[in-house]
Design brief:
The structure is a homodimer of 406-residue chains. In chain A, α3 links the parallel β3 and β4. Chain A has 11 helices and 14 strands. With 406 residues, chain A is α/β, with parallel strands linked by helices. In chain A, 33% of the residues lie in helices and 22% in strands. Chain A has 2 domains: 282 residues, Aminopeptidase, CATH 3.40.630.10; 114 residues, 2-Layer Sandwich (Alpha-Beta Plaits), CATH 3.30.70. In chain A, the strands form 2 sheets. In chain A, strands 1, 2, 3, 4, 5, 6, 12, 13 and 14 form a 9-stranded mixed β-sheet that branches. In chain A, strands 7, 8, 9, 10 and 11 form a 5-stranded antiparallel β-sheet that branches. Chains A and B meet through α7, β8, β9 and β10 of A and α7, β8, β9 and β10 of B.
């Protein structure tokens, strides 16, 4: 028919046309018009590939290649259809596209599987329209409920529920599925690791835990020229000593630990006045919860000591926390063997960003596979992965599903 | 008559009423209506005290107690009548008030001096309306000229010259006076030193030199979670190491050195993105030019090394520079002896802020005396010095002038 894409390259451009922008960016936020059109188009493509389609009550879209066995469990594969504002063409999209293409291939070549194979296009993962992330997988895994969207509005004041209803979905009882046996996500890395180590596939050991803090340091404003160094309560001097030590402590941890100060505000922020207040954020991540907790305790304690030494007040507030999620070892071994026997290079690594897979990991064997991101760039119109790299990802996914379901 | 103040306390409140605000602050910027009214009122008070008054062509106001000798030189005393926006009642004002009251007292008690005594109310020092400071003393000392005000406008787009003409002064040839033999300024300290050391009079050794820098550090933005610490070009990490070392190097200098980072901007300043740019200011001051220059060279070199180590780009720009001004040793000895014999406690110190005296120091023997500032607070409605402390300052000034001019 020519209506639907016939290869990965075409499929990426086709899906990116829903919410596509002049600079190559894509904006497809939850329940928006481009979002609706993208889900409807994907539904059409799934049906064209011979899959049984349906939406759940919040807008997750499914395409099923059923087993003939009535009590068969389901292997779910897929990713999210929503994007950040001015995001790229690959984030989320690739996982859905690869899922549909894998099932199309397997159906044509091997017919019906012994275990149901199902591709999902999650309605939402990014948290880019409403201040809530992982909505699609959160509801599917029973970890979220409708309570989580009460009182949530977008930047234009539209409530979550109003937007959902406008897109044709209603706040009805959500039925958590019991048949999901395995979840597999294929995603771009969104970081530079695979490119740096020159490997084709990232096999994810864990999605890191995150702790985010807001630190407020208070001292006293004074005239720069007339206040001797020894009488100052310089909030920035204190904050700089804290951040300096944050990185020193990080150096002593293992190389899975990442930490960063991304935001910092000074007051009054005038060249000839000693700052009386500094507010800064600390983002710390590690795949092991106890390592992460110990790191955060160490730097918090060091911050308190610096504040005491310089007669400053300090307030440390943790405003965001995500537990690490361990990917399934057995699944990863299967994938590693597939790569080895197909002479596809791989790298075992952690995911520093969050993904739908982190919620499925709590309820069933789950893993996530990465393909390289050029320059590590993501959440940008410059996001790019070559067709060859995408094809390698699809090839591995097909082999996994063949091995698990036939 | 009751029209003019009869003591210091009254005089401070009286002068503060021109441009006075509800919260006790004073806004009296150059050539504004409150400025004109204040100068006119001061002229009236000077005349009431028997002084010969005149304005120069830019609006500096003089009140003269003449010597009978036709070729006598002049000892000039005074300070500036302009204020910062929402400034205090004492900054500048006290030096003028004390000058008028000293001359009034000396005239009544001792009659005509051997050397002319003259009080000046400088039109401008703060740079708070136009981006040019020390206008009054700059013209008087011949260090400034009308060229310095070409193309200068205030925040409302009014040119310097237009404002000057509207206040009744014209851009005519400025005649630099040749008769000024000595300049003495009495001023509030604007810092906490006298209060901390519990002394009544600060005898200023030097007004510090200043160098102000703007440092731009450039790295690369990346996702906090997906970029290993070893692959980052984190502009803030680099900047923090630089600022940390700035303070360490300062510690190794003598205690006259002050330095501060008052302003800092991060980009993109988002919690989960590694900063790609940090821009910050460094303000460094010391009474000795070579010590100051050496300090600045040291930290600049250290900054370059940090940038190199972390593969960051750095640009160091010096955007403001003031040479140190040495106060006159002989004058200071006279003042010290006066304090000692009158049992008035004093402290020899530097001035970390700029003053009209720093320009006079280049053309004639000059000094500046401080009285304490409560809590070191200045440029604020909370600026305060007790009447007793002001009276001590006036008493010392009277004794100096008596000793020098009679």
């Amino acid at each position: 028919m020519g209506q639907f894409p016939i290869n990965i390259e075409e499929a990426i451009e086709w899906l990116a046309s829903f919410g596509g922008e002049l600079d190559g960016g894509v904006t497809r936020t939850l329940y928006s018009q481009p979002w609706k059109e993208a889900q409807q188009a994907l539904k059409g493509w799934m049906e064209d590939a011979g899959l049984l389609t349906n939406y759940d009550s919040i807008g997750n879209l499914f395409g099923r290649l059923p087993s003939p066995h009535p009590n068969a469990k389901t292997i779910l594969i897929g990713s999210h259809v929503d994007t950040v504002k001015s995001g790229g063409k690959y984030d989320g999209a690739f996982g859905i596209i690869a899922g549909i293409m894998a099932l199309d291939f397997l159906k044509k070549k091997y017919g019906q599987p012994a275990i149901n194979l199902e591709v999902v296009s999650f309605c939402e993962e990014e948290g880019s329209r409403f201040p809530l992330a992982l909505w699609g997988s959160g509801m599917m895994t029973g970890l979220y409920s409708y309570k989580d969207i009460v009182d949530i509005k977008d930047s234009e004041g539209i409530s979550f529920e109003t937007a959902m209803m406008a897109a044709g979905f209603v706040n009805s009882e959500y039925r958590v599925r019991k048949d999901i046996q395995t979840f597999i996500e294929l995603h771009i890395e969104q970081g530079p690791t695979l490119e740096k180590v020159e490997k084709s596939i990232g096999i994810v050991k864990a999605i890191v835990g995150q702790k985010r803090f807001r630190i407020t340091v208070k001292g006293e404003s004074n005239h720069v020229g007339t206040t001797s160094m020894k009488w100052r309560r310089d909030a920035l001097h204190g904050a700089v000593n804290m951040i300096h030590d944050l990185y020193e402590i990080a150096k002593k941890s293992d190389e899975d630990l990442v930490t960063s100060v991304g935001q910092l505000f000074l007051e009054p922020n005038v060249p000839n006045v000693i700052p009386n207040q500094v507010q800064f954020t600390v983002d710390a991540r590690h795949p092991n919860e106890s390592v992460l907790r110990s790191f955060c305790q160490q730097f918090s304690q060091q911050f308190q000591e610096h504040a005491k030494k310089k007669d400053l007040n300090i307030h440390v507030e943790m405003w965001h926390e995500v537990q690490p999620a361990q990917m399934d070892n057995k699944l990863n071994e299967i994938i590693q063997n597939i790569c080895t026997s197909s002479a596809i290079s791989f790298y075992r690594m952690n995911s520093g960003a969050g993904h739908d897979a982190q919620l499925f990991a709590r309820v069933c064997p789950t893993t996530i596979l990465f393909v390289p991101s050029q320059g590590g760039i993501s959440h940008s119109p410059l996001e790019y992965t070559s067709t060859k790299e995408l094809e390698t990802g699809l090839e591995v996914l097909i082999q996994i599903l063949h091995q698990l379901a036939y």
